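## retry 2 of 3
previous attempt timed out at serialization; input unchanged, resubmitting
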Amino acid sequence: MNRTLLTTLAALALVFAAGPGRAQNPAAVKAIYESGCIGCHGTGVLGAPKFGDKAQWAPRAKAGIDALVKSAIAGTDKGMPPKGGRADLSPAQLRAVIEYMMSGGTAKAPEVAAAKPVPAKADPKAAAKVDPKAAAAPAADAAPVAAAPAATAAALADPAPPAATLAAARAAAPNPAPNAAVNAFNRLLKPVGRFNRPAVESGIHDPTNDMTLQLQPPAVAFAALPKSPAGNHVDWVKSLDGKAIEPRWDRLDSAAAAVVMDLNIVREVKGSMPDVVYPHKQHTEWLDCSNCHPAIFVPQKGANQISMASILLGQKCGVCHGKVAFPVSECRLCHSKKKADTTVAQERKP
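## retry succeeded, writing output
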């Protein structure tokens, strides 16, 4: 295999294997923020402290970074799910991204002294046989950091040097779970029987918390709602239109009405696929405009580069679709306008 390609694969393997105690470089921390946090912390939705806004972060900072990490792990009663919906993040990664948001992207890894290894009992005979070169090299399993901010340093440290081999990357990475779902990257692409699982099996809620067992199983809660073949198998648009559900628009005012915008945006698509229709009506029945603008979509014609690749990476439409909205497998829900059509349907059809 080409040596350059081998080195690149090794570096990627180390980055994606990052977890508790594994290294994450600043670019990886930024990627976590942009893929999972920017939707709320970029615009201040539901009172979320904005990225780099020192005035908003100051009162929270008084509690200390450990308290902020603990809060992020548990979620908040203001609407933030546990770990911001990213169950895969470790406490070290959460700490790093919180400091990244508090500093406005200028946080740097602190200087951390290497831990001194505990000396073994001296053996004069063994010492006489020690190779000077081997003695000068650090032990492979020596702990690299051991100070109070060790988790932050580990999360922000540079990845492995280019000399790392693919074999070393594989050895360092955790073993994948047996029979792991091939579409695990897209939470709503699940086989029949694996959707709407009880909260204790969701991967989001804490399975060791007794209160998790008290939550109503989604399969029971959704039983009476209109069915859909996609995602969690509920047709949420029909549920809204038929008044089977009535989302509360304001947490404090039960009489507050949603600000609904009935506007369709058509994006022409190259090739044979039908054009994409984005219906504001169905989205604004659920969401305030600030959820998407301007952090995810710039409200200006031609200002947004949208592709299936970016969506699959959790960007643009992928911020929600595949996580809390229907997955990308349902092509015709978005590609709904035939090339020959001169009008656009006002309602998205399932």
